[in-house]
Amino acid sequence: MSKIYLGRYIYGVAAIISGVITFAWRDLNAWREIMPLDKVPHSQIFLYIAAAIELFGGLALLWAATRRTGALFLGIIYLIFALLSLPHIAKGGWVNFFEEFALVSGALVVLGETSSKSHQRARGLARIGYIFFGICVISFTAAQVVYFSITKNLVPKWILPAQSFWAIATTVAFGLAAVALLSGRCALLACRLLTIMLVGFGLLVWLPIVLLDSHKLFNWTENVENLAIAGAAWIVADFLAQNRAGAAPVP
Prior knowledge:
- The chain is mostly helical.
- The protein is built from 9 helices and no strands.
- The protein has helices at about 5-25, 45-60, 65-85, 95-115, 120-145, 150-155, 165-185, 185-210, 215-245.
């Protein structure tokens, strides 16, 4: 019986949810990924195109026969989102860039794993996605340092011992995960723990925020983006697990 790798399913479901939310709200001004296009005539159409691609890509990713196509579509739309963040790098857009690029990395790993080309070339593409993801984790560490007060305030006050403790602990965890991923030492363990931490962010931080204020689009978008990044981290962990087991790419 073949092993089921859940990362790609979480990643795909996050894309589907994002597409549904986009169609439900239809608010161009609330989507930072599309905001640079707000001066383009009929810019609303770009919002619908992006949502349709996320829906199609997410659904395609759930089935083995269409998984490569789904990863390709999602990788392209997330790369476009990342590139649209570049003009705002100096104003903090680097955070948005690396969040989107982490999703591109997840798509690259899936493309590599499902490639019909030679095993070596397929693993090379997945390896590139893996390295890119490790670089993105460095940016997550830096973001928590630069925006430490925001990070601290996001920690629920009921979680002991203190908000500052968990803000520092998660920042250190991001840093250690980045070192492990890029050095290759304890990379699988680090990526699994990173995935658990990101899932924890969703359950303990973003989900309660949505429940408290479900009418604010920002709360939903942050929730689904965190879920997508957790899915990308899970994809990388699955890739490392396959490497350890010496398995061939799984379709």
